[in-house]
Amino acid sequence: MSGCPATARASSAPIVSPTESPSIPPSGTSSPHSPKEFTMTDTANGLLRLPAQIAFGLNSLDGLAGTVSALGRRAFVVVDPFIRGTALFGEAMESLSAAGVEVAICSEVVAELPVPAVEAAGEMARAFAPDVVVGYGGGSAIDLAKLVALLARQPSPLSLYYGENKVGADVAPLVAVPTTAGTGSEATPVAVVSDSERELKVGVSSPYLVPRAAIVDPRLSLGAPGTVTAYAGIDALVHAIESFTAAPWSAAWGDTLPVFVGRNRLSSLLALEAASTILGSLRTAVSSPLDLPAREAMSYGSLLAGMAFGGAGTHLSHALQYPIGALSKTPHGLGTGLLLPYVMEAAFAETMPELAAIAVACGHRGGSDEALAMQAIDDVRSLSKDIGIPNTLAEIGITAGQLPRIAELSLTVKRLANNSTLEPTHDLFMTILEAALTGDRSRLSR
Ligand SMILES: NC(=O)c1ccc[n+]([C@@H]2O[C@H](COP(=O)([O-])OP(=O)(O)OC[C@H]3O[C@@H](n4cnc5c(N)ncnc54)[C@H](O)[C@@H]3O)[C@@H](O)[C@H]2O)c1
């Protein structure tokens, strides 16, 4: 299912000298390169936070009733309002009724998840007292379902749970059914909301928010419009590349690990496969919405990217998007996708082996580590352009005068700002933002 842009060069020189010390192979045995060709700096430690069951594949939705009824007889279903009207959703609900599951449906999914809407949905769920919650839709519906599963069992207000590791274990089991290929929320421990008291979106992150089961059926994203596909899909690529290029694991083993521990041995396997798969399929998924192999590849890639970043975390594109999204009112994926190539260039020297590994996983061969790493950035840039991601912050209405405040706010999102290989400083963030404002990359490190 993987494969990258048709621009791949065709020679087979290793990306580093064989005399350099090998370390952990970045991908599985199906990878097109020998593990000894790499000098990546992964630690020996690994961490994944995953659902108890992940079902992936065409028609896997047929397993919904069995999965839900194994968890209880009363299901509170949070569904995207558009998706609620689709035939497949109707059939899925009929299958639940046929299995003897009593269903309550909530389709009050408001974009960006304003907190009052989340509290209201939580209140409805508490009144219904579900055994199980189902999240069916894009990342917004699944994130809402995660928080409903929390509020169905634990007290309001939601602000009690902002940040990391504030959620106790008593959360209703959640079955996540994504209809976009992007957020990976079906496999992650985080949900993101907008609190009008704060200038930034806020994350609620806890291992207990990981869905109990995920059902990833590529049929559900078939036919989604180009912009939905592009913004969700590029976000999945950002998850893959940022978890692969995050600061290596440095957490100490202890009672409570941070929710996001940085790049690690297990996440890297998934992240590299995700990056090459998405780079090879997103263009087609956007240009040909009914292309089933491209949809399958995107669902697979975004799932793997979610599995990777659910433990490793993401970094600077995400930290910078939070205030940019709030100011420009642009979709999450548009912002992270716009920023990604600038962030990759800013950390070019620190992440060259990883960037080169991405290029090799995409089939590029020959040249130095540096040339391959540049190729990876070029591939990302050309994909973004082809699927209509704006190239500059100016195009989405951000002005030079807003940059210092954006940098300041981004620095406060510590779980993201501190997860880069670069030291998070106001100067660094301004350099990236200034480059992204106009597209002038001359001050970035490459
Ligand atoms: N929890 C996580 O791990 C995580 C990660 C990244 C992003 N997010 C969050 O996810 C949200 C974005 O999610 P998203 O990109 O999936 O978009 P979304 O859920 O906000 O949906 C975007 C639009 O696409 C439509 N849509 C969804 N599926 C469709 C389909 N199959 N066909 C046609 N239209 C469809 C929706 O009706 C909506 O209008 C943001 O709130 C972001 O903060 C969460």
TrEMBL record:
Residues 14-33 have a biased composition (Low complexity). Residues 229-436 form the Fe-containing alcohol dehydrogenase-like C-terminal domain. GO terms for molecular function: alcohol dehydrogenase (NAD+) activity; metal ion binding. It comes from the Bacteria. Pfam families: ADH_Fe_C, Fe-ADH. Keywords: Oxidoreductase. Residues 51-218 form the Alcohol dehydrogenase iron-type/glycerol dehydrogenase GldA domain. The keyword Oxidoreductase applies. Residues 1-40 are annotated as: Disordered. Belongs to the iron-containing alcohol dehydrogenase family. PANTHER family: ALCOHOL DEHYDROGENASE, ALCOHOL DEHYDROGENASE 4. This is Iron-containing alcohol dehydrogenase.
